[in-house]
Design goal:
By secondary structure, this protein is α/β, with parallel strands linked by helices. The chain is built from 9 helices and 10 strands.
Length: about 300
Amino acid sequence: MSAIAPEILRQVKRIELRTRGLVNARFVGEYHSVFKGQGMEFAEVREYQAGDEVRTIDWNVSARMHRLFVKRYVEERELTVLLVVDCSGSSRFGTGARDKQSLAAELAAVLALTATRNNDRVGLVLCSDRIEHVVPPRKGRRHALRLVRDVLAWPSTARGTDLGLALDWAARVLTHRAIVFVISDFVTPPIERHLKRLSQRHDLVAVVLDEPGERDLPDVGVARLVDAETGKYLEIDTSDRSVRERYAVKLAAERATRQQLLRRLAVDEVIVPTESGYTEPLLRFFHTRETRLRHRRRR
């Protein structure tokens, strides 16, 4: 990457100032509660005691010793977090104060700074219809801000999207269980096979960037639209009610298909609107996930 423009550096600083309070006050504790049990390492085998979970019983040792023994694990606090960020043509679309790329940068800041506050390593993959840029996982605030800078400043010339390439890359490269946040609008060719492969070994979270300008087709008469990923132009009469209804039906079907796929693969989905931001969606995600983990432990 060439020299970073001063405006990009100022934008990184603004994002840091805007997100730092949220990270310290609201996200660090939630993140630790949700992800603290993701990395565990074996400590010892000890004799079974009343109240121990049946699933921790070491049946091989128990058979040899003719009494029950359990495996004890300790939390492996140092985790690896990978941010997979879509930087294709559609990421630069926005009808409000910020486009999807700017929102992705703020999300990267929140997640990276939160992870580094928990002493975790954070890495970055920028992708379009190819792997654009990779930053290996490291620790520290300066490293986290470097990731934000790269999301904002990476000079992608590709317009298309193929998230499958990035998902397959992550599945090949990540040797230990990691937390993978995929930040995208998920306008991509089919990715079920790629999601399934990655989610089998890693904790996968789909962060869907939701832009209001793409939710509804406004009634503005004849409009000339351009596809941000192919560059193709299309003229449509938005005053035609049937055109708007077909658009709404198609969009709803695409979202339902995505949500069904993610549920089937047990991949968490966090929908983040560009107009209202990420704070409440992320907190809902943490709370929902923590509740689910508590229920599992009780069972």
